Amino acid sequence: MDVDELLRSAELPGVEVRTGDALASTLRRGRVSRRRRGAGLGACTVLAVGGLVVGGLALAGGDDPHEVATGSTGSTEPTEPTPPAGADPSPVPEPGDAATWSTDPSALPSPTASTFTALVTRLGCSGGVTGRVLRPGIELTATEAVVTFTVEAQTGASPCPGNDAVPYEVDLGQPLGDRALVDGGCAPGGPAATTGSCLGEDGDVRWRPGGEEARECEAGEGEVTDVATEPPSWRQSADYLPWTDREGCLLRIDVVAERPGPDHCGWERATVLVTGQPLGARYTAPDDSTEYVRDPDGVFGDASLTAGFDPDADLPATAVDSGYRRGDIELWHDPADPSAVWIVSPDHTERWPAGEAPLCE
Amino acid sequence: MDGQRPSFEQAFRAEYAGVVRVVAPIVGSVADAEPVVQDAFVKAFTRWRRIGRYDRPGAWIQRVAVRDAVRFAERNRREAPPPPGRPDPTEAVVTAIDVQAALQVLSPKQRACVVLHYLADWPVSDVAEALGCREATVRVHLHRARGALAGVLAASADSEEITDGR
Fold first, then answer.
1. Which CATH number applies to B85-166: 3.40.30.10, 1.10.10.10, 1.10.645.10, 1.10.3470.10?
2. Is the pTM of this model over 0.90?
């Protein structure tokens, strides 16, 4: 059977949902969110005077202090939000012309920081000049920080070379945490939604926490990240750990493959990392690959492997960064000496010797 | 409310289950889909004066929910369930249930493309708009997804040969 035909015959699964309960929960959250968007000065006032008022309301037994503090009408027909007068972040940017933004590659955001630098570019034609960047709109949810930029309004027609990028320090008001940074200008129906700046592989996401996490990227045939042409059975044959390039693009299994020792042989405390030779080449057979083994406990029963492992190694002067990553772990090697690799994590470096892990029958 | 414009509550009751139905195969379960979909409705609620005027407010909500679903799936991809095991050997055909289980081996974007295009019958242009990418990118995701699914489904079907149609 053709998989195309099979898919066309498949249907969405049926679902059972409690629409009434979901509606009530959504309305409750929507009202809170709506007020946080600055729909009324009351919300800003409460936040501005600090925690005493909010705390007092909470102690009074309200399950939603914002609900009481702002005098909810209970309406399910919200009104259009207006920009707040206070200094608290508002999702509504200062009125102006549309703009998009990117992160500054020389100063990437950090989950622990409450500020980051955005490079803002006017969307419309302006003779190559973005102009003054206005106060952005900022909307924080549990998973996203949506930042919407505008720039000073301009009248009259202008030629259309690409506009310059203007740095702007964004203050989120609290640490970014585990949120993705999203360009609010790319929202569906937004001014930039159908422009090239919002149609990239990551769409409206300008940065995401744990950007080191592996993701499949589009790649040309033969590239180390061309995972699309990997037979699916390769990656399913073991619990491979995801190695990526510097950009977080998943590497092919036949370029770098790391897996724990098979547990049915009791070898799960050991790890084997297989690379092509030279590092970065694809391997097809034992002859053109090298296994590097982490076996501190000697579960493989090969004393040379255990002896060659150094849990706190110094990087030799000849070692170079391969550019391959697994989270915050880096893979280093000596191009002239494939007898070991170094696994560099933020707090220590391990030396893994080349060797041959035994087969588990 | 006027005669033409639905209230938020009316739109919610009309659209909620349908959006959950689309999002659930992308994120892997109804339990994970509901918070994602409710987040999308919360966003619509805060903008309802504008969204409510659209010809199809539900389409806006669905697009937002789908994008959020892909992000959710990308954040949680390490927790994705394992690929489907071998089916009952007496099963002579690959069923729709097998297809939905097999979807979990795809990347979140590939899975979203397959769910929206094949299971929900969206045209490629709508899938591209929902995911914020080009139509060509959607076609690439679909092409690669078909290849991956052909391998997985063939491995789980003794009696039928599955090809990716190339």
1. 1.10.10.10
2. no
